[in-house]
Fold this protein.
Amino acid sequence: MQREQAGVAPRGPQEQYFSKLAEGHFQIQRCTACGAHQFFPRVLCMHCGAQDLAWTEPSGAGTVYSFSIVRRKPESGGDYNVALVDLQEGVRMMSRVDGVALDSLRIGMPVRARVLRGEGQPLVVFVPAEDA
């Protein structure tokens, strides 16, 4: 947990998460009391309620739990996927899977996380594990 310095307001967990992403680092929280990982960042452990949370870099390995194809006209950017990915650490994230044809995307597909910077706010996307 981040300690407050005199005269400086502590940064919230969401701000810390996006700051780390801007530096190219994907990190999630791990509770030091119960050992559980969690995502999206919070001030308390969603499993046991403890306040002592540490930032840790996940393996990046995951599996597509579910996905949907969003249909758009080509002039609006074309179709894209929205995927729920289960990370090896036990958290589920919503993102997209890049580098795979939409008709080849499958539930159960192994994927690996990548930090994407340069398109506005940095974000975590996934690519097929064999392309990692």
In short: The longest helix spans residues 13-22. The helical segments are 13-22.
